[in-house]
Write a structure and sequence with these properties.
Family: Belongs to the glycosyl hydrolase 13 family.
Number of domains: 3
Strand order of the largest sheet: 9-8-7-3-2-1-11-10
Shape: globular
Number of helices: 16
CATH topology of the largest domain: TIM Barrel
Region (Disordered): 372-394
Organism: Methylobacterium trifolii
CATH architecture of the largest domain: Alpha-Beta Barrel
Largest sheet: 8 strands, parallel
Distance between the termini: 19 Å
InterPro entries: GH, GH13_cat_dom, O16G_dom_2
Biased composition (Basic and acidic residues): 372-390
Bound molecules: 1-deoxynojirimycin
Radius of gyration: 24 Å
């Protein structure tokens, strides 16, 4: 394997800590639970674990409302538990990536308590306070991502504070150098404890328009969309000044060697690319959610991959994401069969893959009865909630699928007695085995981990084919997005060996001239 920094070579695995493993019987996952399951992650073959927020928090948004940037919420454990997790991960050559939430704190953060106490508070300017509009009402038309206005009036001081999310999540004022300095200190606190990088929450939101201009109306808005889409978020986010803020964070990381900065960014492709920053001073990896947003068709995905590859800045490293704690499960979106194609795609494209816990089991949409809804967004805007993709990891066929000894905070999937790690780990055809084999191949073949990419045009609308190559090794990946079989021409005289099929079996077979592809089958071929 050529010498390449770990986050380019490796695969990131996202753990939603409430739902991974509970060790203290409260129905909510914890840090010790993650530590207990590190052997599983090593066995699976991922390289880094990204942990969604575990900081002290009132949990209005399940940890994305931070009350102390340098601590651990007792629900998840202690700083000692955290240190142990990092040490145990490192012992297994697994990296640890923390979720960092700098755009907003909790309303309970002492900084905000101080800020809201009076207009003269030393920390007043750490948050975004504005007078009511002339004639009263919120200062402008900005909306909360969770529905309703993004401004809440604080009657005691007569001003509104801005919150891009819940009223319990006031936005910090990143134009204030003291805020930047405090946040840099928080980054150093965790870097000093050995974390290998950060996934930065809503990084494109950090700077807002200095003049707080109204957002323009979105002509494409329709009532089935969340209310935030009523306006184009032109002034409330994605301001050019944000790149300087990101460069500041990156500079902090640079002092610590090979650490990674990943930015969460939901923007169109052209804008996303800007977040690599001038001369790559921005995020190492601006999260690429395009696969989540593109229709599941071979031609659309092929076009996306080509546009993304072509749009990358010189030296910018690609990455791909299929799911996370905010998006419907991939298996629910494309169906069980195509979820296998999706896994093969994610783990063979050029760029760092991020795999969401449970997707390796093919977990689908878990229905949440009304009385068990937990996500505040679902309460504000029914139908948009994220509970169905946050349900507990399923480990075995025992009570609570081995996740907890108590009733879990969210329900298990109905098929938990068969859809679990224990039941699937030794089955050749399981989704879990498919993931493990793909991750194994990625480690075995530098062409997959760090090699080049080129499309193989076949002129078959349901098939997406491409090659990954490095140092004379060529792998060809052929993915059938449709439900008909095809005979695929191999376009040159070479002989090929089937390394694996998404349907299991066929490995080791030699083919030349053409190869048969079953409905919804994916193949990885190695040129002889
Ligand atoms: C993005 C996070 O992924 C999401 O879960 C959270 O609700 C918002 N940011 C607010 O922090």
């Amino acid at each position: 394997m050529p010498e390449t920094v770990w986050w380019k070579r490796g695969t990131v695995y996202q753990v939603y800590p409430r739902s991974f493993q509970d060790t203290n019987g409260d129905g909510v996952g914890d840090l010790r639970g993650i530590t207990q399951r590190l052997d599983y992650l090593a066995w699976l073959g991922v390289d880094a674990v990204w942990i969604s927020p575990v900081y002290p928090s009132p949990m209005a948004d399940f940890g994305y409302d931070v009350a102390d940037y340098c601590g651990i919420d007792p629900l998840f454990g202690t700083l000692d538990d955290f240190d142990e997790l990092v040490a145990e991960a490192h012992r297994r050559r697994l990296k640890v990536i923390l979720d960092f939430v700098p755009n907003h704190s909790s309303i309970r953060h002492p900084w905000f308590t101080d800020s809201r106490a009076s207009r003269a508070s030393p920390r007043r300017d750490w948050y975004i306070w504005r007078d009511p509009a002339p004639g009263g009402g919120p200062p402008n038309n900005w909306l909360s991502n969770f529905g309703g206005p993004a401004w809440t009036l604080d009657p005691a001081t007569g001003q509104y504070y801005y919150h891009a999310f819940l009223a319990e999540q006031p936005d910090l004022n990143w134009r204030n150098p003291a805020v930047r300095a405090a946040m840099h200190d928080a980054l150093r606190f965790w870097l000093d404890r050995g974390v290998d990088g950060f996934r930065v929450d809503v990084i494109w939101h950090l700077m807002k328009d200095e003049g707080f201009r109204d957002n323009p109306e979105n002509p494409d808005f329709s009532a089935d969309l969340p209310e935030i889409n009523r306006f184009a978020q032109v002034y409330s986010a994605d301001r050019p000044e944000v790149l300087d803020v990101i460069a500041g964070m990156r500079a902090v990381l640079r002092d610590y060697g090979e650490r990674v900065l990943i930015g969460e960014i939901y923007l169109p492709m052209e804008r996303l690319m800007a977040y690599y920053g001038p001369d790559l001073t921005g995020a190492d990896m601006p999260f690429n959610f395009q696969l989540i947003q593109t229709p599941w068709r071979a031609d659309a995905v092929c076009e996306l991959v080509e546009n993304y590859e072509a749009g990358l800045p010189e030296g910018g490293w690609p990455n791909w994401v299929l799911g996370n704690h905010d998006q419907p499960r991939i298996a629910a979106r494309v169906g069980e069969l195509q979820a296998r194609i999706a896994a093969m795609l994610l783990l063979t494209l050029r760029g760092t893959p991020t795999l969401y816990y449970g997707d390796e089991l093919g977990l689908g949409h878990v229905p949440i009865p009304p009385e068990r809804v937990r996500d505040p967004w679902e309460r504000n805007e029914p139908g948009h909630g994220r509970d169905p993709e946050r349900t507990p990891m399923q480990w075995d066929a025992g009570p609570q699928a081995g996740f907890s000894t108590a009733e879990p905070w969210l329900p298990l999937s109905e098929d938990a007695t068969t859809r679990n790690v224990d039941a699937m780990r030794d089955t050749a055809t399981s989704m879990l085995t498919l993931h493990r084999r793909l991750l194994g191949l990625r480690r075995e073949h530098a062409a997959l981990a760090v090699g080049g990419y080129r499309t193989v045009p076949l002129g078959l609308p349901e098939i997406f084919a491409y090659e990954r190559f490095e140092d004379g090794t060529v792998l060809r990946i052929v993915l059938n997005f449709g439900d008909a079989g095809h005979t695929i021409p191999l376009t040159d005289a070479s002989a090929w060996t089937i390394l694996m099929s998404s349907h299991a079996g066929r490995s080791g077979a030699r083919v030349s001239g053409a190869v048969d592809l079953a409905p919804a089958e994916g193949l990885i071929l190695l040129r002889a």
